[in-house]
Amino acid sequence: MVMSLELLACAEMTEADRRAVAAGVSGAALMEAAGAAVARRARELWPAARRILVLAGPGANGGDGYVAARRLAERGLAVTVAALVPPERLSGDAAFMASRWSGAVTPIADADFGAADVIVDALFGAGLSRPLEGAAADAAERANASRTPILAVDVPSGLHGDLGAPLGRGPVVRAAATVTFVRPKPGHVLLPGRTLCGALTVADIGTPEAVVPSLGVATFRNRPALWSGALPRPATDGHKYRRGHALVWSGPEFMTGAARLSAFAAARVGAGAVTIAGAPAALRVHAAHVSAIMLAEAVDADGLEKLFGARRFASAVVGPGAGPGVEAAARAALDGAESAVLDADVFTAFAGRPDELAAAIRRAPARPVVLTPHEGEFARLFPDLTDGSKLDRARAAASRTGAVVALKGADTVVAAPDGRAAIADNAPPTLATAGAGDVLAGFCAGLLAQGMPAFEAAAAAVWIHGEAAAGFGPGLIADDLPHVAPAVLARLLGAPKDS
Ligand SMILES: NC(=O)C1=CN([C@@H]2O[C@H](COP(=O)(O)OP(=O)(O)OC[C@H]3O[C@@H](n4cnc5c(N)ncnc54)[C@H](OP(=O)(O)O)[C@@H]3O)[C@@H](O)[C@H]2O)[C@@H](O)CC1
Ligand SMILES: [K+]
Predict the structure, then answer these.
(1) Where is the YjeF N-terminal domain (predicted)?
(2) Is 321 marked within a binding site?
(3) Which of 140, 297, 356, 446 lies at a CB distance of 3.0 to 4.6 Å from 266, suitable for a disulfide?
């Protein structure tokens, strides 16, 4: 099984296959290895299965299916191939593999889906070019309705490997498990694709080692290996301000909780000092709740500017529970702090005016900025960015604004203006709870304050957020997240908390 960070877009996968062939590996050898991996996985997952139905499509995905059919039949299983097109209409390696299959082939319309113990879905993979319809749609729907476990080859048919969603309104196979090749694709990690794939495994099919690194892949799974090298490690001779002073802008007195969640989060991921800035009435509420966190008066954006003028703030958070004056506060933070995290109310304030926000961000292009919208806020801020996958949209927003964009959800995408992107798959459903976003903004700010580069800081914050929630388990409320974060950090830094 392959463990790696890269996620290959379908076009990159095609190029990987082309380069493998150019390096001397035959297409037939790749297909043989792919089909063999599918057969192995079927036997591993369902060792008691005796009757296998392989759905074979018109392209190379179908070719993999014919290989899997042969390999499973060689093991004594009763295998039937249900073909979408007659084998004589196949071409290339798929035609060759079909010619090596000597068992039963039935037209897909005649297949008995209920009579199989396992269905291998080899209808369409990376070559899906339009929604499933007609006989293909019918086959997908009958496979799903049969309740027989389905093992998908490369991707569940109908699911687009780049989008993580079906093309158009076509149906999509719901797989119990999926075997993909070389590397996962974005569609295996983005939702709903991740759910439709079931248990994903990645098979090595003999692609030479040098091929994937030669592709310049910029899309990754959000895993510690992507950013742990940049994770701040407190130095023994550290000084609290050297570990970074983060500022959190507070809303008015009846909505102070969000700012406190961000402030605790920034502190717990290691900011050396954290100050909450706000109006006196709000600060009086904060004072009843905080000890290590400092309070500073800033009635409005002018007050904030004065604070930024008086001392160095390594990062600032504006947006959580911010209320009136948030746009001016965001502008002050972008101008005055060394890095900024903009969240929540900032996106409402700049709704439909992303270019004005971008202009404010680009006034100091060297200053790292992270935007952390959820889908609703993203849609308000960028009403025209509706095309493509979540990955495409986050990338477009990052490139347009010059900020790192963390487009939140159960598959949070962190995208950088330079094109890098990371997709998270570690957030448990319990993380969908009030205030969790405020904590995420604080985690970002705390890591930025310690000098972590923005893309890495945002990706690390998202991952830590997910791990903290998963580690806490049921009953999670946002207040718990900052408290659990140190245990996650201890694991990342390799230091047991009690040593
Ligand atoms: N060396 C390699 O490359 C290796 C590749 N491997 C395997 O190859 C797979 C990619 O193969 P592929 O490119 O042939 O595409 P695939 O998904 O089989 O389908 C293309 C065919 O389907 C058709 N079609 C598309 N959508 C349709 C629809 N809705 N309804 C009906 N028809 C539709 C499309 O028609 P067209 O768009 O041309 O009209 C074309 O005829 C990849 O996923 C992996 O499993 C492995 O063996 C490892 C080595
Ligand atoms: K498939």
Answers:
(1) 13-213
(2) yes
(3) 446
